[in-house]
Amino acid sequence: MSLFFHSEDISFDLKFKRKTKKWIYTVISLYNRVPGNLNIIFCSDNYLLSINKQYLNHNYFTDVVTFDLSENTEISGDIFISIDKIKENAKEWNTTESNELLRVIIHGILHLLGFNDDTEENRENMRHLEDKALSLWED
Q1: Domain 2-134 adopts which CATH fold?
Q2: Residue-wise pLDDT tens digits, 57-77
Q3: Which residue(s) pair with 77 in the sheet?
Q4: Strand 74-82's sheet: what is its strand order?
């Protein structure tokens, strides 16, 4: 099992890496799953847009794109996160950039756990699961 944080076309260094890893592993274990190989890649809006177009045929900006490589109970995959969108969302939702970043990280993890946000009902459930996971973050 491994969890790595990378930045692709921007300079970004995640604070509290060890704490964030522990939190992600805790959330994964709540669903009786185990962490496999996970990569969280921080990038710009334009970089994520190019991924969204190339691999998903979506021509719009987003905050996160998740590629699920999980098998059986092992959670693996790549989660691309736009730091530009994190900053924008934090202002829009009147929250801190740190809190928004944690929400988007765990959103990607929830996708790897099999949860979707393709309908209004699923979006509400995803928001509830994000809130539950965020409540486990200890300041």
Answers
A1: Collagenase (Catalytic Domain) (3.40.390)
A2: 888 888 999 999 999 999 999
A3: 38, 68
A4: 2-7, 34-43, 74-82, 64-68
